[in-house]
Structures are given as C-alpha cells and as structure tokens.
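Why does residue order matter? Because the sequence determines the fold. Keep that principle in mind as you read this record.
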Amino acid sequence: MEQKLAEFRITFIAEYSDKLAMLTKLWLNARTSKTLDAVKKFRFEVHSIRGSSASLNFLALSDLLCLIEEEVAPCEEKINTLNSVIPFIDRHMNTMIEATKNNPNPLLLLKEATSTLSKLREPQKIKEEINSPSYRDIKIALIDDNKNTSVVNAKLLTEFGFTINQFNSIEQFEEVFKQNRFNLVLIDTDNSINLSEKIFDFAAKLKTFDTDVFVLSSSSSFENRLSAVRSKVKEYLLKPVNITTLVSKIRKNFKIDIIRPYRILLLDDQALEGSFYKTLLEDEHVEVLAISQANSIMTELESFHPDVFLLDIHMPNISGLEVAMVLRQQAKYDYVPIIFLTSDDGIKTKLEVLECGADDVISKNTPPNLIVQQVDSRIQRGQEIRYLASRDSLTGVLNHGQIMEAAAHSMRLTSRQQTPTVIVMIDLDHFKEVNDKYGHVNGDKVLISLGQLLLQSVRYTDHVGRYGGEEFMVVFNNANSKIIENKINEILTAFLHINYTVNKQSFNCSFSAGLASSTHHQKLNELINSADVALYKAKNAGRSQICVDESK
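Structure:
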C-alpha cells in the first residue's frame, strides 16, 4: 500500500507543472474577461487540485489553494466583487509559480515524497477477520441455574442449528472454559439478583478471551444496563426473549447474513483521485468500483450493488449533491449510506449534505487510516439497518417487497447477461391443520425453521423471501433448473426430519414446491405464475414433492 501511495504522489508531482499552467491560464482569462463562466471554471480547477493535493498530503499547496478558493467563491454570486480579490489571488498565484521555478529539478520533489511518506499514513490497525462464520461453527454456552428454562432455550437454539452447552453456574462454566473456548456466552441473571456485580465482572473477563456475552434479564433498570455496557456485554435482552429475536441477534453479532466482500461505489471526476481512493480502500474484503462520469452511475448500478456511495461534491456540469438526490429518489437505496469526500468541509457544506439525504462528510485532509475506519463503520451500520428493514419479522427471510425486488433485479440481469433465473415457490403442506391442532405459536416455529433452513441451504447470491402466509419464494441467479430441482429435494428431505414437540407429542411437516426458469419466460409475472402452477401440480399430485414447469 505504501508503495502505491508513493506512486500516486510521484504522478501528482509529474503532472503539477501542467496543472499549474492550466490554472494560470484560467486565472488570466477570469481576471481579464470578468465573466461568471470564466470565474466558475477557475474556481473548479482550484478545487480539483486542492482536493488531490490534500488527499496526497501536499498540505502546504492544499492550504494555499483553500485561501484562493475562499476568496473567489463569493464572486460567483457577485461578479462585481472580483476586482477586490484580484491582488490577493495574484499574490498567491505568483507564490506557486515562483515555487516551481525554485525547484526545477523534479528529483527534489521526489525526495520530499519519499521522506514524508512515513507520515502519509499511520500504521493501520489490522482489520478484523470478516469472513462470516457458518452458524454451525458458533459454539454457545448457556449459563442458567433454572434447569427448566435452560433446557427449553437450549432445545430451541439447537433447532436453529447452533451448538449449545448448558451450565448451571459460572463456576461450572469456568472449569470447562479452561479447556474449551466458546464464541458466545448467554447468561440468565434472574436467579442471581444478588450476584449481578459478579456476573458483569465475569462478562468483562470473558471479553479478554474474545468471547462475546449476551445477558438475558427481566430487569430493565438503568443501573444494570449501564453495568452491561461497561462490561462490554454485546446484547442485553429483556425476558421473556422471543427465540426469533435471539437468533436474529446471534446471526447479526457474528455477521452470518452479511454479504462479503463490502462494495463501494466511488464517483470522482478526477481520475488520479479516484485511483488513489480505490487503492486506499480496496483489499481482499472490499471491492471498489471507481467511475468518473456521473451519467454512467445508473448503468453501473444494474450489476453493482454498493454498501456505500463515496461521492465528490464539485464536478463539471453536475453537483455530487444532485447525484445524491437522484439516488435517494429510489427506494432500494434508502438505507445505503452516502458519504462525500471533499476538501470543502465547512458548516454550509455539511448542512447541504444532510439536506440532500446524505449521511456524512469526510475531509480530504483526513489521514487515510481514519478515512478507512469511517467508511468501514458506515458500511457496517448501513448493512445492519438494511437487514432489519428488509426482513420478515417472524422468519428472518426477506419480506414480500424485497423478494419481489430481488426477483425483478435477477430478471434484469438475465436480460442483459443472458443467464437464467430460476424461481421456486414453496408452500407448507396442511399448515392450517398444524395451527388448529398445535396452536399458532407452534405454527410459527414451523415457519421459522423452514425459513432458516432455506437461508442456510442456498448460495449468498440467491434470495429467500416470504411471499405471504405459509408460502416462500426462492430466487436463484444464473442457475440450472436440474441442479436447483435436486437442491430443493435435498432441502425437503432435511425438513421432513425436523421433529417438533408439543406437550410430549411429536410431529413433522412437509412442503410442496413449484419450479420455473426464465429460459421459457421473459416476463417476471409469467415466471412467477408458472412456478405457482407447478406448485399446485405438486399439491394435487399428493404434496411433499417438487414439480417443474414444463413450458416450452
């Protein structure tokens, strides 16, 4: 990384004389013609060079250009004030020209680049390993001295695929912990009211072993919540805890549902700056698409789904603020953070950024390591918000609107890339009888388990959603119908083996499914209807099976 940053500085140095010559030409035109257009062109060039110099740590140059921009900016609103600032700008333009004359040998500047390189970026904290674990890899300890609740919670979590070890005291857990480590410890505090201080001290100790702690409690007191915060407890959950809420919190904590790598769309009309930030941010966990033309952004977004937008504010013919407002017109980007990278970080700019629907402003003078941290923080928070907003509250899969959007997007990709989309409609068999016989609470458990089984069984590029009631939709991108048919049959077999127990009475459930491929359908509504027709063929053929659309 340091070598690449040095190369960007050297490139800037090599191009600086030409940039200064262009800036001088624009200033001469502005001061003689005194037209608004000429002043705007000069200010735009000043701003562009200022941004690049700030990003690459040429701070003296950046500060000088900042002074010039601050003086010339009001002239865009009152051109008759230009005469009053001409002497000031002349003086600073001459300073830059003379500095270039005093350093005719570019090797002197190259020496500056290499000698100051160590200051360019502080050693960056190594990023945490963000390869999302499988739910099967997460070892969970449950500490609860109430055997009844411990058994119930352990059984419910086991049904979701987690590995659970039960302990009736902290002391019993510590004996095992000496030999076996856990990723997460769930502590029920209700039967240990007089030991709350000990529990929170224990939680703080676990954090030193990189073990996360969730506290389950009936107390919502400020004192207990504050103690949890100070002990680095990750979640403080009020009892009775809904099992789907707990599972959702666990999946969120371990980033099971977060798609990797992170994706950043960067818009900057200055190619050098775009390349600089792409190099700064991109690694094996972050993919950056850098574009320099604002009018190409919608085309790029057809195949690139960013976790954050990084935009420059000042560009020719369009403002980054306008681009942000165009993005916010589209509901699918409501929860995608928009960050502006700019050398203009005054209070007026920050207010304009908030008014256009963006989230943050990062000054180009910010040390590179802090830029990386700010962007990473925004991405994670944005993904968490989008996850919560897009999910069905009961099952944790996509809600109806989001699964339909996923299907529509997959069909657009199909049209452009000529790769097939496969849609599978899944409906639980005899679900009304389950609700009538075992109650809606247990019916909900069946819905939850099917939703989670589907999520755990498909690729991260595929989409699972609740279409309505007991019906689910699965969208497979770039998929072969026969392979998907086999996959759904495997899922059905696994689902048939899930045992549900109510009052010591066990039962199993099944589902029917219909499959259709875009190979035979060009419109989304036709594809969904065909999958639905195939689903009802499966129902009529005896249920607990999958039927494939036979359209030609």
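Residues 2-33 form the longest helix (32 residues).
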